[in-house]
Amino acid sequence: MRIGIVSGTTVGKISNGCLLASFVAFGVFFAFVASGQRGGEAFYSNALLALPMTVAVACGAAAAVFAVWEVFAQQATSLVALVSIAFGSLIVVFVVGELTQPH
User: Fold this and answer.
1) Residue 18 confidence (pLDDT)
2) Domain enclosing residue 22, as ranges
3) Is 2 within a domain?
4) Is residue 53 one of the residues assigned to a domain?
5) Residue 24 maps to a domain
6) Alpha-carbon dihedral of residues 74, 78, 84, 87, nearest 10 degrees?
7) Model confidence at 90, in pLDDT bands (50, 70, 90)?
8) Structurally, how many domains does the chain consist of?
9) Diameter over CA atoms, the chain
10) End-to-end Cα, the chain, rounded Å
11) Structure pTM?
């Protein structure tokens, strides 16, 4: 099995786009935090912080799902797909941890 850098399949391109959107949304979130925005008691207390984080998590999880589909169903493997799977898995672990053991 040969591993390329970027996938050429349609599902791989969707996964790559979702991963890129996730990184951009995380960047927007951290830009808002750097500009002085702070959260409140609840997650959606500050929409400027909650919306980019929600988009980042959703896109990261979607990138992982599409990457798993690409690797297992289409037998096409790329380095970006493996990064998507790892990144999405970390997101899922953090979300499950936050839901089961809130601080």
Assistant:
1) 95
2) 14-34+44-100
3) no
4) yes
5) yes
6) 130
7) very high
8) 1
9) 49
10) 44
11) 0.87
